[in-house]
Structures are given as structure tokens and as C-alpha cells.
């Protein structure tokens, strides 16, 4: 099988149930999720050794679920019975967030993306995830979508923030505080 089909040479692409322009909001939404998936793969590759085995396993599962998100958004008309993304996936992310958050020091100020290379990669995942969420919100305002995808992406960006901090902690690297930040987070 050849990798090129030439069917997109005129600026159209296939979605499940039809063809649309390559700059259609649907393509932009699932394309941004695909971009995110590539960055998650990069972060998984950086999560080396026993120290990050749990995180690497999470990231590999997240990659599968991001494909599910893209698949749900690629349908022009989709019945709920065919949805791959479900509410339970966001609930599981919340459990993961809570598990990792206990490793992190109390946050008082805004932090800059960075620190250890793995933490920096996870911050890139967070920001691309936020863009994917925005694109999904735009699509959802124009057309019917699986709302669980939007919720999953929202929770996933929180997960990336927390595990970026955990990556720094496990590598003995401090988060980089934004020096002009007031103390904006309160201790619970």
C-alpha cells in the first residue's frame, strides 16, 4: 500500500461520513489532538527508568485515548453508542492527578514551564492540550460533538501540569517561579 493517495491535493480531506476542507474546524480540532499525541510520545520517550515507569505507562495509555478523542471528533454524524471517550476517563485522570499531586511541594506562585527536560516536555503537552481543548470548544459551538472529549481534554491539561511538577521533584529540580508573581495560591 502506498502512503500517498493524492486525494487531498485539492485541499479536501476525508472524515468519517464525508469530505471537508483541510482547514475545517473539525480537522483543526482533531489535528491539534494528533499534534498533542506526538508531544505525549516525546514525553513518554523522556520518561526513562524505574523512576518514571508509572508516568510512562500513563502517557502510553493517554496516547491511545487521544486517538479515541480524535476518532470521536472525526465523525460528521455520530451516535452516542459509537463514542469511544466516556466520562470515566476524566474521572480516572482526576485520580491520577491526586496521586501525583501528593509528591509536589505546595504551590504559592505561578511557575514557568521548564526545569528538567521531561518537565519541560510535559508543559509543552499542557499548552498544546489547552489549544486542542479550545479547538474542540469551537467545534462544539458549531456542531454536535461528544462532550466527554472536551471534559477529558480539560482534565488532561491539569494532569500535565501536575506531572510536570512531579517530574521536577523526582529529578531533584525546583520549579521555576515567576519572579513577578504575588503569592496567588492558598494553602489548603
TrEMBL record:
| Domain Cobalamin adenosyltransferase-like positions | 3-167
Pfam families assigned to the protein according to its UniProt record, in alphabetical order:
Cob_adeno_trans
- Supply the EC number(s): 2.5.1.17
Carries keyword Nucleotide-binding?
A: yes
Kindly state which keywords UniProt assigns to this record, in alphabetical order.
Answer: ATP-binding, Cobalamin biosynthesis, Nucleotide-binding, Transferase
Q: Which reaction does it catalyse?
A: 2 cob(II)alamin + reduced [electron-transfer flavoprotein] + 2 ATP = 2 adenosylcob(III)alamin + 2 triphosphate + oxidized [electron-transfer flavoprotein] + 3 H(+); 2 cob(II)yrinate a,c diamide + reduced [electron-transfer flavoprotein] + 2 ATP = 2 adenosylcob(III)yrinate a,c-diamide + 2 triphosphate + oxidized [electron-transfer flavoprotein] + 3 H(+)
Which Gene3D superfamilies does the UniProt entry name for this protein?
A: Cobalamin adenosyltransferase-like
Biological process per Gene Ontology, one example term: cobalamin biosynthetic process
Instruction: Tell me the pathway.
Output: Cofactor biosynthesis; adenosylcobalamin biosynthesis; adenosylcobalamin from cob(II)yrinate a,c-diamide: step 2/7
Kindly report, in one word, the top-level EC class recorded for this enzyme: transferase
For this protein, the record's InterPro entries field holds:
CblAdoTrfase-like (IPR016030), CblAdoTrfase-like_sf (IPR036451), PduO-typ (IPR029499)
Question: Which GO molecular function annotations are given, in alphabetical order?
Answer: ATP binding; corrinoid adenosyltransferase activity
Where would you find the membrane-spanning parts of this chain?
none
- Describe its assembly: Homotrimer.
Family membership noted in the UniProt record: Belongs to the Cob(I)alamin adenosyltransferase family.
Q: Check the record and name the NCBIfam families matching this protein.
A: PduO_Nterm (TIGR00636)
What this protein is called in its record is Corrinoid adenosyltransferase
Native organism: Paenibacillus bovis
